[in-house]
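Researcher: I need the complex structure. Ligand is flavin-adenine dinucleotide. Inputs:
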Amino acid sequence: MRFAVPLILYGDRPQREAFLPAVAAGEMRGAWALTEVEGGSHTRDLRTRARRVADGFTLTGEKAFVFNGPDADGILVAAAQEERTGAFLLTPPLEGMTAVRESWTVGARGASIGTLRFQACRLSPGARLGGEDGPGKEDLERLPHGRLLMAGYSLGVGQACLEAAIRHGRERMVGGRPIVRFQEVHFKIADMQVGVDVARQLALRAAWLVDRGKGSATEASVAKLFASETVALCAQQCAQIYGGQSVLQGGRADRLWRDSRVAMVAGGTAEMHRFLIASELLAGRA
Ligand SMILES: Cc1cc2nc3c(=O)[nH]c(=O)nc-3n(C[C@H](O)[C@H](O)[C@H](O)COP(=O)(O)OP(=O)(O)OC[C@H]3O[C@@H](n4cnc5c(N)ncnc54)[C@H](O)[C@@H]3O)c2cc1C
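Model: Output:
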């Protein structure tokens, strides 16, 4: 989504044709590379630089934590170009580019997350997204879709926590009774249901606004922030219902707790979303 949506919105015809049909058919994997090791949450001063040369561009710099990075067939890289910023489309493998998979992440292990290094990596003249008048990094960062993606991820993990907790609570017998009979377990299940339900409504509202062309990054931030904190709570409650089993590596509660960690950071940390929401409100834009 973070690769394809910018292409749909800003790509020129050859760029869209080169990637979108294959991405839509599930034959191509895309990645969005913004984060840098030195910058982290502060993406303002990009160190990755694109330089215009006679036959295209050269790209130099390093990107961290890129989802799908080591396995991507197409990558959109945010970089500074002279006084501006922009995004550049690459099709690996490329001379001057190396991709290194991070050691195993605690959760979301189905995806590969990696570091990308560019050393005077040569790009074609048509590599800049949308051409010379293409979007800046800020235009792409403001798109709500990446936040919605992480709201959806969080909802999925939160719902899985709820279902696992109910299943385990019904099966686990203590003192001759299934533990779901205890009020303390009831309350945890109720709290999880309320959280997941509200998170779903917020995500649906934000997605509905996007579909009508009225969506803003603020509603998407609200949805992402709430869903990511809800999934952290759900994973904790689920683990508590699993009792001692929750600390066994490789168990259901262990996996869900590990997957919940990813939601708190990927797509922007909870702290940065709070900052963004308040800034928009205080500036009268939300
Ligand atoms: C699983 C996963 C997938 C990811 N996928 C991608 C991807 O596909 N593409 C991509 O470009 N990036 C990706 N990222 C990177 C992600 O966006 C960053 O990890 C995130 O923005 C935080 O940056 P950081 O890890 O450097 O943390 P830091 O910026 O070092 O932050 C550390 C802590 O300090 C807090 N902090 C930092 N600055 C402030 C501030 N100004 N005010 C208050 N608190 C602050 C943070 O909230 C956090 O709690 C991914 C990360 C993960 C974990």
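Model: Summary of the prediction. The pocket of flavin-adenine dinucleotide is lined by residues 32-35, 40-41, 65-67, 105, 108, 113, 262, 265-266, 268-269, 271-272, 275 (CB under 6 Å).
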